[in-house]
Amino acid sequence: MKELTLKNLDDFLRGTAFLGTGGGGNPYVGGLMLRQELEKGINCNLIKGSEVDDDALIIPIAVMGAPTVIVERLPNAKSCIKALRKMEELMGKKATALIGAEAGGINGTLPFILSSYTGLPVIDGDGMGRAFPELQMCTFGVYGVNCSPVIVRDEKDNEIIVNAENNHASEMFARVVCMQMGTKSEIALYPMTGKQMKETSVHHTCTLAYEIGKSIREARDTGKSPLNGIIDYFKTSFDKRFCKLLFEGKVTDLLRESTDGWAKGTVKLTSLSDPNQEMVVQLQNEFLIALVDNKPVAMVPDLICLVDLETAEPITAEDVKYGQRVNVIGVSVPENMRSKEALDTFGPVPFKVWDEYIPIEKIS
Questions:
Q1: Burial group, residue 294, by CB count within 10 angstroms (0-12, 13-18, 19+)
Q2: Parallel, antiparallel, or unpaired for β 122-123 and 44-47?
Q3: How far apart are CA 133 and CA 64, in angstroms?
Q4: The CATH fold of domain 3-203
Q5: Suppose 267 and one of 3, 196, 199, 281 were both cysteines; which one would form an S-S bond, judging by CB atoms 3.0 to 4.6 Å apart?
Q6: pLDDT of residue 216
């Protein structure tokens, strides 16, 4: 994918929902905003990380808050632009390109929305290869980029600049501000050079999102199983990953609440083939761990994705409903998300969901 257009938008949105692993905000909302701009004839250029100079200024843009709130309080494009301009002012130079803080959900679309207004290209990559709930939980920070300054804004032109001693402190202070703004804010953060972006990003994730969405659509269009379409895609994709069906079930219980600036809860599924077998999925914005009979079958940072049983359309955490019939899919992540430094930041131990990380391909 070299640019985002009306022709490939739906496939891209479907893929960002998949990579969101339940979180990141519903990409449908970002899709509406983006479609409005693309219908004006504006296409958004996508470039490889290797195409920018080492001394270029690259700025990630995101919306911060609980996905359950973002459905009702939509991201504000003008607020994003003002956050970008403030960051340029603080850095003393203009941005060369934008990059997503995370590849999943609405934050996968937000850089393209901003690109449609500013003309800046979007880097084919991000800092997570998925979605995570906290600002320090990204490869940018894991490999040495400072999260601060963080520009935290809302649509009423309230603006706070967070300069903190470390990336985790940036998250703590920005989260408090975000909650005071109604648990939804537009943010600019992790200002970095082109060299830092090349060394710390999860690359080609925009293209990955598009190709995941395309694989689901093409399978449906040709009468094949869309579930097999996803699994077969990962076997032959440019970014080969381990991918497997974890569970086929019906949602029989659901706890989901907005608290401390996040959407937290659990989803309980009962097997369609064995009513005595259950899966429990814990979430904090994103799906964090899936357990069958109290034993993990997948855990962060590997992807846990709920998709519709018939269509394989990805289901976000705020759209999970009692009675839904779903497939739960697990996908491995790149090696730079499995280093000790990475797991110490966004593995199962920091989330307090399991006492050690077990790669999905090693869980029988």
A1: exposed
A2: parallel
A3: 9
A4: CV3147-like fold (3.40.1610)
A5: 281
A6: 97
